[in-house]
Design goal:
The protein has two domains: 4-116, Immunoglobulin-like; 124-302, Glucose Permease (Domain IIA). The strands form four sheets. Strands 9, 12, 13, 14, 15, 16, 17, 18, 19 and 20 form a ten-stranded antiparallel sheet that branches. 13% of the residues lie in helices and 33% in strands. With 303 residues, the protein is an alpha+beta fold.
Length: 303
């Protein structure tokens, strides 16, 4: 039998999506007597925009398994789980739910919820004046770049047990927005790079950079080949913020920081044309989500 807590959660989640009638209302009614016996961790459901690049925070029974495409999470001891939608997601994604005491997934319910994903248009951005050594590196730099790549992969693989993501997120720095998530980039009038994965703010060298939410520092290096000064913070469940091009690093790997704490200073190191902060957010070392979606999240009614 389907766990009533999961059913109630689905009812709450459906209400967030649209005003259509609840297809499992009859099932809820049949199980109503059990409701008095089920311990629910609090308000349940998911928050976040259903569009490409979005971060999704959910709350269900502890131990619930949630699957949305390649994004899979297990609800923690308080029922919280972090999911994401990649940059090039399909127009429809099935949201699967299963619990420790129920083997069936939501796909086996007659009316399984399908998420309709808003598709985004990404601009092509030409970026000139980038140090050519960071666009077409000299072969002699390969050992350094390989070493730093391995270091970054280790840091991205962090899965901190804390819940810094429940703070909500604030902007890490002040400045003029010069780059957005998802845009394709052409460097130095010809070399096409990977999409831009972060939000860019331009300001003077030394502009303070603060933690957008609490978390565990998993990497803090003053001079990386592509990034200059670089800091990673795991906000919980492998939701890792990266802060690039820093001129100063004020934390060390292993530090636990609070929201708003000073972590570094803006700079122009690595692949940069001028002083700015590039803030990127990667989920469980699988794909990047749009930092703007973190700033837009309101988790008040889930906590």
């Amino acid at each position: 039998m389907i766990s009533l807590a999961v059913v109630l959660a689905l009812q709450s989640m459906t209400a967030l999506v649209d005003d259509a009638s609840d297809p499992i209302g009859e099932l809820i009614a049949r199980n109503a007597p059990e409701a008095r016996e089920v311990a629910v961790p609090g308000p349940m459901g998911c928050r976040g925009r259903r569009e490409e690049g979005a971060l999704i925070i959910c709350r269900f029974e502890p131990g619930t398994r949630l699957e949305l495409g390649e994004s899979v999470a297990i609800a923690d001891s308080q029922g919280f789980a972090v999911l994401g939608i990649p940059r090039n997601a399909p127009e429809e994604m099935v949201f699967e739910i299963s619990t420790a005491d129920v083997a069936n997934s939501i796909n086996q319910i007659d009316e399984s919820p399908t998420w309709f994903i808003t598709q985004r248009e990404y601009n092509l951005q030409h970026v000139d004046g980038v140090p050519q050594a960071t666009v077409t590196p000299d072969p002699s730099t390969l050992p350094r770049r390989q070493r730093e790549y391995a270091q970054k992969q280790d840091a991205f693989n962090s899965v901190w047990e804390g819940q810094g993501f429940l703070d909500g997120f604030i902007s890490p720095a002040e400045g003029i927005t010069t780059g957005v998530y998802g845009s394709a980039r052409v460097y130095n009038n010809g070399h096409e790079g990977s999409p831009h994965w972060g939000l860019d703010w331009a300001n003077e060298v030394g502009t303070p950079v603060h933690a957008p939410a609490g978390g565990l520092v998993t990497l803090a290096e003053p001079d990386m080949y592509y990034e200059g000064g670089l800091i990673f913070i795991d906000h919980g469940q492998g939701l890792v913020s990266a802060f690039l091009h820093l001129s100063g690093v004020e934390v060390s790997a292993g530090d636990v920081v609070e929201q708003g704490q000073l972590i570094g200073a803006m700079g122009a190191g690595g692949r940069a044309t001028g002083s700015h902060l590039d803030w990127r957010v990667k989920l469980r070392n699988q794909f990047y989500v749009d930092p703007q979606s973190l700033l837009d999240l309101d988790l008040t009614d889930l906590r």
